[in-house]
Amino acid sequence: MRRYLMIKKIPLPWWRRDNTQNETSPLIPKAGSAKEDAAELGHVTSEFHQAGTNNEQDHDSPVFTRIQPNYSYSLMDYFLKYFLFLCNLVFTVLGLVVLGLGMWGLISKESFAQEKIGSIGTDPMLILVTLGFVLTILCLSGCVGALRENCCLLKLFSAAVLVLITAQVLAAILAYSLQDQIGGYLRSGMLAAMARYQDDLDLRFITDEIQSNLQCCGADNYRDWEVNIYYNCSAPGVLACGVPATCCVDPLENGTVWNSQCGVGAQQLDEFTAQSVIFLGGCLGGISRWIEQHEGLIGTVSIVVLGVQIVILFITTRLLESIQWHKVYM
Predict the structure, then answer these.
(1) CB-based contacts of 194, cutoff 8 Å, min separation 6
(2) Which residues contact 150 (CB under 8 A, 6 or more apart)?
(3) pLDDT tens-digit series, residues 91-109
């Protein structure tokens, strides 16, 4: 019968247990606090784990900022910054001066006129304009980039300096490998300058300086002046069959007065007679001899200029790294 009878225990008063918690007791935890503590502990643990694995995404989290290192500029960084700024400022001003001189030369000679625009490509002032413009833009980007700590401008400046260094090295290699053809290019350029001797004051000044300093006349010899329409023997003027006064051995009359007519009719003279009046040798040979005599100085200057550019590139790279580290850990 026991199998089919249900005996229900009647709970007695002393069997009852107080399952309710005393909220006023500080020693007894609240209901459900264990679960909340476990959830909070898991949240903190996951936050630490996430902060350790995702450095780039959690730089702003409070957990990461407590252990984040503080990067500050060193004295060397400040020195490199202002040294680069001052150097580029000086060369920026120099580039503006060169650009201004080139533009002034083109405007004063009216090189942009319709009848002269075709020969502007051989104008020496165009070289000054191009050099001044490139120098100004290049150094201005480095100057502003160093002062404002602008990474884009500093990268542009360093890339331009690197391209310039590469171009100079390639030009030196090309000049060495094509040194036989360089003489032909110089000859063509000098003949073109002689043909425009009376029309372009800059080409006239350059030609006179070469002939007087190297004591030469023409490109190969004094008869090359036939390419000029005024010194050609078929010209109707008084300068026909003559040469400029800078070709004369003694262009000063009585040692004091410049005699601009000392070379008149010199092309009609034979070499034996002409050698007492004018220089017979051409300027191309004089230029070659001058380069051979000063090749050590030319090499030293080229190496120094290239070394300065490499140092500037190194300073820019070092400053760029410092700026990037400072921005990351700010």
Answers:
(1) 207, 218, 219, 224, 225, 227, 228
(2) 144
(3) 999 999 999 988 887 787 6
